[in-house]
Amino acid sequence: MPSRTEQVIDALVVGAGFGGIYQTYALKRDGYNVRCVERAPTAGGVWYWNRYPGAMSDTESFLYRYSWDKEALQTYPWPNRYVTQPEILKYLNFIVDKHDLRKLMRFNTAMENATWDADLCVWKVICDTGDVFIAKYLITAMGGLSQAHFPNIQGINSFKGRLIHTQDWPDGIDLNGLNVGVIGSGSTGVQLMTAIAPEVKNLISFQRTPQHSVPSGQRPVSEEERKKINENYDNIYKQVWNSGAGFGVNESDRPMSSYPREERKKIFEGLWEQGNAFRFNLSKFNDISTNIETNRETCKFINEKIDQIVKDPRKANALKPTGLYNRRPLCDSGYYQIFNRDNVDIINLRETPIETIVPDGIRTSDGKVHELDVLIFATGFDAMEGAFTRTTIQGRDGKLMTDHWKNGPTSFLGVSMAGFPNLFMIFGPQGPMSNGATVVEVEANFIMKLIKHAESRSVSGEVVIEARPESEEKWREICDKEARSSILHNAPSSWIFGTNVPGRKPVVTFYFPGLKGWLEITKEETDLGFPSYT
Ligand code: NAP
Question: Are the C-beta atoms of residues 129 and 1 closer than 8 Å to each other?
Answer without folding.
Answer: yes
